[in-house]
Amino acid sequence: MDPSFDNFNLHIGRMDTDPSPALLMRLKKIILFRVDNKENNYLRVREKDKPFYETLFTFIRPALLKIIKGFGYQDYNIKEYWQQKFTLGDFQDLHCHSVDRPQLSFIYFINASSHSSPVNFFLPGYPYIKVENQGALQHKVEVQAHIGRLIVFNSFIPYSVDPNKDEEREIISGNMAYYLKDTIPARGIKHLGLTLEEEMAQKKKTNAKT
C-alpha cells in the first residue's frame, strides 16, 4: 500500500511483482488492434490467448488478494480484461471504468521504461470538485509505470494517462467483482463472471422459486 493514497479516503493499492521474462514475452506477442489513439483487444480477446492471461492471473492472485484484503474484502472474480499498448504519443483520456456498480479495477504493467507515462488518479468529481487537504489542494495521485507493477482501485475513480514518451508502455487492465466472504479458489482466475449484485439477484430469484 502507498500511504500517499490516504488523501483519497478511497481504495487504491499498489504492489510490485516479478513476472517471468517468458510470460511477459508471450503476452507481448498477443495480437492487438489499433482503435482511436491506442492498440488494444478490448472486447476482442481471442480464445487462443485466454490460457496465457489465466497464467498471468494465477501468478498475480497472491498480490491481488493481499491488496483487496487490505481493502477489507476477502476474494474477487475477474469479470473482464483486455491488453493495451501505448506507442509514442498515445494517451488515455480522463475516464472511469464504472459508476453504476460496486466493483474494483486493475492495471498490470507487462512493459514499461523510465519514459513511460504514469497513471494519474483523480478524486471523483474532478475537475468540477476539488478538495482542500492540510492547506494544499490535493486532487491527484501519480503512479509511475513499472514492469510487474499491479494497481487496484475503485472502478469509479477517474484516471488518465498523458501522451506517452516511448514505445514500451503495455498493460493488462480489467474489472473485478469483490466479495466479503471467501469463495472457491478458482474464482480468482475466471473471467466474465457474475458481479456481486448479479449473484445476489440470482440467489434471490432461486429462493423465490423454492
Protein model, in words:
- This protein is an alpha+beta fold.
- The strands form three sheets. Strands 1-11-6-13-4-3-2 form a seven-stranded antiparallel β-sheet. Strands 5-12-7-10 form a four-stranded antiparallel β-sheet, with no helix packed on it. A two-stranded antiparallel ribbon has the order 8-9.
Sheet of most strands: 7 strands, antiparallel
- What is the strand tally? 13
User: How much helix is in the residues?
Assistant: 10-25%
User: What low-confidence regions span 5 or more consecutive residues with pLDDT below 50?
Assistant: 1-8, 184-196
Helix/strand order: EHEEHEEEEEEEEEEH
Helix count from the secondary structure assignment: 3
Strand fraction equals 25-35%
Shape: globular
How is the quaternary structure best described?
single chain
Amino- and carboxy-terminal Cα gap: 45 Å
**C-alpha-based Rg, rounded:** 18 Å
Output the keywords:
seven-stranded antiparallel sheet, globular, 210 residues, alpha+beta, 21% helix
Give a quick precis of the structure:
With 210 residues, the protein is α+β, with helices and mostly antiparallel strands. Helix content is 21%, strand content 31%. The protein has helices spanning 21-28, 50-71, 196-209, and strands spanning 12-16, 33-35, 38-40, 75-85, 92-95, 104-111, 119-122, 132-133, 136-137, 140-143, 149-154, 159-161, 170-179.
